[in-house]
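Example 3.2
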Amino acid sequence: MSAKGWRDAEEWSLRADEIAPTIVGGSHKHGGPDLGPTRARRAWAALGVDGLGIADEAPGPDFDEAMPRLTVRMVARLQGFPDEWKFSGGKTASYRQVGNAFPPPFAKAVAESLRICLTAARFVLVAG
């Protein structure tokens, strides 16, 4: 939130200190990216985030609305994507990619567990 010099970013960060709701992929039915159904948007609001859409950029120094919106990059960070990860298309398409993706840290943990299981199974086959 402070990337563009928003003067209230530090104060905002003190409120945003709970676990956030699950990121969802954006609804084709309802016209685009948002941070989920009503209950999820209320939870985002409790964190000081406007969940009714996705921002083009982080709030600037003169941002004076009640709550900022997240950008695609912010949501991607929450999902565990590295900053250098590229998404294809515009804001809505990119948001849907992030929201519908299996979070990379979780995918890595699953893959590592599978590697361990397959290594153990190979060992049993070779030794047995």
